[in-house]
User: Fold this.
Amino acid sequence: MVSKPNDLLSREEYLALERNSEFKSEYFAGQVFAMAGGNRRHNLVAGNLNRILGNQLLERPCSVYNGDMRVKIASIGKYTYPDVSVACAEEQFEDAEEDTLLNPVVIIEVLSKSTEVYDRGKKWEHYQRIESLREYLLVSQAPYRIEQYVRQSDGSWSYRQYDGESQVVTLESVACSLPLAEVYAKLR
Assistant:
């Protein structure tokens, strides 16, 4: 559900409602946007990504979060729920609830028909405002396609596309690898 312009919520009102809600919603500029649930393919891919990264980061000072971790884009006051996010070292949260991450290093979105345009467009534009963000991945639900954006030292972003079961995405920011065969396990 999209809120009406005259029903604008403050950040505090949104967080109070969201923390007691059964369903997740994004927040931007006083408006609340309900999020749809994922299908089998989406959930398997996101789960595989969480497992692969979680296993590789188990003994390192990084945490992997699933789609229930809210991320705030502080510079514009937007709250969103990436499918997967990774934070390292000194994780920063908005408040003592520790349910709103401020400094992800990696964000991954699993694409769907209803979100692909948004994930590639406005959402990606907004994510680029997160100073800590080093890598952004767009993962297709259909095997085998992952697109990777990597922040360069000058602030620009490089792009690489991976297609094929034998390919491996390297996440340099967290020294992890994502073999596409494992990302798409049980979807072949």
Summary: Residues 38-183 form a domain with the tt1808, chain A fold (CATH 3.90.1570.10).
